[in-house]
Specification:
The chain is α/β, with parallel strands linked by helices. Helix content is 39%, strand content 21%. The strands form 3 sheets. Strands 1, 2, 3, 4, 5, 6, 11, 12 and 13 form a 9-stranded mixed sheet that branches. Strands 8-7-14 form a 3-stranded mixed sheet, with no helix packed on it. Strands 9-10 form a two-stranded antiparallel ribbon. Helix 7 packs parallel to helix 9.
Amino acid sequence: MKVAIVILNWNGAHHLKEFLPTLLKYTSSPDVAIYIADNGSRDNSLLLIGKDFQEVKVLLFPKNYGFAEGYNRALAQIEADYYVILNSDVEVTENWLQPMLEYLEQNADVVACQPKILSYHQRNQFEHAGAAGGFIDYLGYPFCRGRVLAVTEEDNGQYDDVCDIFWATGACLMIRAKEFNDEGGFDDDFFAHMEEIDLCWRLKSRGYRIVCVPQSKVYHVGGGTLNIEHPQKTYLNFRNNLFLLYKNLSKSQLAPIMVLRFFMDYLAAFQLLITGKPKNAFAVFTARRDFKKMLPKFKYKRLENTQKKIIRHIPEILKKSIVVNYYILGNKRYSDFNK
């Protein structure tokens, strides 16, 4: 099989009902198979698939393994040249798959890519999770072409060039199956959030390229499992971001950046507290506590990354702080960082 499109589902029957018909309509090829990997759903997802979408292949899991382990378990059962990891709340468009497939086929040094991600509810606006390709600053804060922190841009074609990026979004990620498996897939311990950034950092440091192919376009609802302001999302984002840094920073960078992040994380918690989000503020404290508790099991992962790293300076890591640029200098667009 050439391409396996895999949707990880957890109680997402409403999304499957809305978005699977469009996916099937615009993905009709004998070389492409569509899978639903069900993470122990308790809604009517399986009844819906059995009744209305019998052409879709189903993988069943007994419980919710999260995004990272759920996808690892699913992809381990699928043989294909390429995997497409697709969120259940994504609406694809006509000819969405072909530009990405062609680019990967024509560029052997590119291991993964993503399409242009637009907002399902504001069709001319970039979507928060991925936009036109992901980057990161030296302190570990992710941003995108088209989205910096909370600000998303209107899509006026300003990012319609194919561009090397630091990370491709897990909302719609196309990746070579061999390299996904050879380089360890997602880190199960992340559970959900930022696991794709961790994978992409590993791939970049081992010499692979990752790109955005904006000739492919999809629309993303976002927050399909957890609302953007849910305390659990805050917890996972802060905890996993610290794991991300610990696993991938060089020895000379690790200590000074972790000290800076100590102060910046508690400043973020204070800001959440005074703006009326005490549960989110507490989630930051809990995230830092659990990061310390889990640190011993990440030491071998850091060692492995250090041993396999061949690229020391990745150009897609911004040498500026997006937090300083955003809040102090007023730079709130991707283009502001390249002046």
